[in-house]
Specification:
Strand content: 35-45%
Number of helices: 6
Helix content: 25-40%
CATH architecture: Beta Barrel
Structural class: alpha+beta
CATH superfamily: Hypothetical Protein Pfu-838710-001
Oligomer: single chain
Order of helices and strands: EHEEEEHHEEEHHH
CATH topology: Hypothetical Protein Pfu-838710-001
């Protein structure tokens, strides 16, 4: 599956308009720990390895996607949740994916965030409203599609949805992890700037 998403900021009034036409699905609390090497081997490829509430996942940027996050309208990632597939993807010389096996191969936590998240369904879209434990709020509009061939059409549908509500994608490239790195891990953030993902 391919996740196509757009991040957005919102006012309380905009949130009310969005959820007025949506169905509340659920509330979750997520504890995410992201991992990378000391030379940022994963994130400098726009790969994001995390453990969320005990479950491993890696989000891998779609080939050909705009490198500069500030120029993207939407993000497109392949999501891999099978642990053996993740081990193979990151070339981890281990039989199991654990914090210990990662640490033994120079992977350490680079980001630790707890998020209170509300989900709404709006037609084919999932609306997500997040409140993070370090004082950040943001929204995401998500659309899951079968594969890469559907990515461009999904981007257009997302743009049309946001436009209909008088909104647009945040366009800052600043998802919650990037903002966390900017605030708490400036060396990591500068490495992403130097690699062209973020403006200087």
């Amino acid at each position: 599956m391919l996740e196509v998403e757009a991040k957005f900021t919102f006012t309380p009034e905009q949130k009310q308009r969005l959820i007025a036409g949506a169905k509340f699905l659920k509330h979750h609390t997520y504890h995410d720990v992201y991992y990378d090497t000391v030379d940022y081997r994963l994130t400098l490829q726009d790969w994001w390895l995390r453990n969320r509430n005990g479950t491993w996942e890696i989000k891998v940027s779609r080939p050909g996607q705009e490198r500069n996050w500030t120029k993207r309208v939407v993000d497109q990632y392949d999501e891999i949740t099978d642990e053996q597939s993740i081990i193979k993807k990151i070339s981890l010389p281990a039989d199991q994916l654990t914090a210990d096996s990662l640490a033994a191969n120079s992977y350490t936590p680079c980001c630790d965030i707890t998020t209170e998240r509300d989900y709404y369904q709006h037609g084919d879209f999932t609306l997500v409203f997040d409140e993070m434990d370090f004082g950040l709020t943001m929204g995401e509009l998500e659309l899951m599609v079968a594969g890469h061939d559907d990515g461009d059409a999904a981007k257009e549908k997302i743009n049309q949805f946001l436009t209909a509500y008088g909104m647009s994608s945040d366009g800052s490239g600043a998802g919650k992890v990037v903002i966390y790195l900017q605030r708490f891990k400036p060396d990591h953030y500068r490495a992403l700037q130097n690699a062209g993902y973020l403006p200087e």
